[in-house]
Amino acid sequence: MKNIIVSVVFMFVVLAANAQQRKEKIGFGIQAGWSMSRISGDTFDGKAGFVGGVHANFPVVGNFYVQPEANFQQLGGKYKSDAFAIGDIRYRDAELNMNYLSVPVLIKYRLQPIDLDIFVGPQVAFKLSAKNKVGEGETYDAYNVKNTDIAGVYGLEYCLRLPESRVDPVLNARYLTGFTNFANGEDPNMPNESYRNNALVFMLGIRF
């Protein structure tokens, strides 16, 4: 964890220095939106959730930019009928809710003159909580969810540049593809299969 933080800080310093040499503006912003997450395998259906956080947009060279982010992200899925069990008791209307601090680093290419960015990049997510919810609100800790999750992110971003304004609206659409199995298979409440997080995300934000 310490090595990751040091690497991120070093990257910010290098990108900021490069942007100053190019005399281009470094953008900072906030964003929030909606996601529809799906878990691989046959145990879960899709589930809607919230995502939101902050980002920094660094010009690199030509039309290329780097955008690191830090987002609170809700992922998970609804158990299919009778898929969630405690001992011999099987429950309906159960879901797995996972909250992460997600840190994607996006490599962006800007299509001129429309200011439409195409991006792709890796994402590391740190688990904040993971719970199984049953019925009207009874919850159980999901101990089988690992502390970190690795994924890839790709999508499109459009920035509406307003004349004589210091704040620009930003619309972002992306898809998250999980690279690693987030379950360790030691909890009997979840079948011992390979599970990967996937999500379709739409966010609206502002950039300064």
Q: Any descriptors?
A:
1 helix, 8-stranded antiparallel β-barrel, two-stranded antiparallel sheet, mainly beta, elongated, single chain, 61% strand
Question: What's the topology here?
Answer:
Blueprint: H1 2-22, E1 27-39, E2 44-45, E3 47-61, E4 64-79, E5 84-86, E6 89-91, E7 94-111, E8 116-134, E9 138-141, E10 148-159, E11 168-178, E12 197-207
Antiparallel strand pairs: 1-3, 1-12, 2-4, 3-4, 4-7, 5-6, 7-8, 8-9, 8-10, 10-11, 11-12
Strand content: over 45%
Question: Biggest β-sheet, characterized?
Answer: 8 strands, antiparallel, barrel
Helix content: 10-25%
Please give the radius of gyration in angstroms. 19 Å
Give the H and E element order: HEEEEEEEEEEEE
Give the terminus-to-terminus CA distance.
Answer: 29 Å
Structural class: mainly beta
Put simply, the count of helices is 1
For the residues shown, what is the average pLDDT? Answer: 86
Task: Provide an overview of this structure.
The chain has 1 helix and 12 strands. The chain has one helix at residues 2-22, and strands spanning 27-39, 44-45, 47-61, 64-79, 84-86, 89-91, 94-111, 116-134, 138-141, 148-159, 168-178, 197-207. The strands form 2 sheets. An 8-stranded antiparallel barrel has the order 1-3-4-7-8-10-11-12. A hairpin with a 2-residue loop joins strand 3 (47-61) and strand 4. The longest helix is centred in the N-terminal third of the chain and has 21 residues, at 2-22.
